[in-house]
Amino acid sequence: MQKSKVVSLSIAFALSVLGTSFLSVREAQAIPVWARKYKTSCATCHYAYPKLNAFGKAFKNNGFRFPGGDENFRKEEPVELGSESYKRVWPDAIWPSDIPGNLPIAIQPVGRINYKPDGAVKSEFEFPHELEVLYGGTLGENASFIGEVELENEDNDTELAFPFTFQWDFNPKWHIQAGTTHPDPTPEHHRLTRNHYNVASFRSRNRWRLRDQHTGLEFWDTNNGVNGRGGYRFQLGVVNGQGTSDKNSSKDVYATFNYKFGGLGQIGGTEGGESQSSAFYEDNNVTLGGFVYHGTASDDAGIDEDFTVGGGTLDLWYDRFILNSTVMYMTSSITDTPDRNSLVWYAQGNYVFYPWLIGLMRFEYTDKNTDDNLDAQSFLIPAITVVLRANVRLTAEYFRPLDDVNKNKDLFDLQLQFGI
Questions:
Q1: pTM: predicted TM-score of the whole model, two decimal places
Q2: Which domain, by its residues, includes 201?
Q3: What is the pLDDT of residue 67?
């Protein structure tokens, strides 16, 4: 490996120890269904929607229920499906459950104004870029679900996606999922920027990437740490790897683990406990994590690519500042072709100037093949997010390539997103 690659890998490793991503949070979207159910503001669970704060993470880790005594906080009562007395005579009765009292659906449009200084078309309007129908809820004491139907404009073509996850919650600690699930350590659905994280978007030679929909089964476990602070989170999954319908018989497997030092407990604090700070965006803690993914991706000709992905994360929250980073290393093998090793990492800082005004700066580095010096790419992404209302967010973002390959591909973007 060349000296420059060793330096890059060393920097990436250092950043994975000095800044990080949110491995403890995954793909579940922010949906106003929860705000209606509990008659509370989106800021109860969100740093800036859809990005979760500490209490929002604990809410999700409790199977989309308020930590400690959910029934004491919900304002929309469910429809009971059977009497509680049925439990005493089971199996001679159907175990009782419930369904949401109102239709658990929300709508989230996303609109954009794009400006490319050196593009053939310099400016364009995308209203909407996406239209998402989001839904989620709980079913009785142990089941929960979340999903969406998404229509997206991509080069004047409409793309349809419909991720869905059903989850069985044995208790706030143990869970099993079926449906759309993956170990994305960024995680994609909680970014404040228009541009996807490079770690999630990086493709293998047969086009696999972390942020695509992966359908399968996942077991996950989480719990608070010492004195109810921080704690661990562990995931173990098996998925198709290439969408709802796989392209080969092999199944992909993955595992993740992180530990949060300090801050609100992973499954909450005291009964109904929110963050100990009155500022919903504060949760002083350090979270260290790691992830590994092994799979097989096939192209349209049936040629297989075996690959392994590994990486580390660290997440530092202090007062109004967040520093996070993820480093990912991929090895790829295709019969009769040289193996390929790839290195991808990013580092990002967020600062809350006011609860409604957040600044962000992200640096990304991508090297598809660490054995040559031809395709390394780097980008700088500064952004400002304005939370106009608890459920309305405007982001101004600048995408600035720093390498020669992508020079003159600058992009300025305004994105408006809201949920109702």
A1: 0.88
A2: 3-105+125-350+364-377
A3: 87
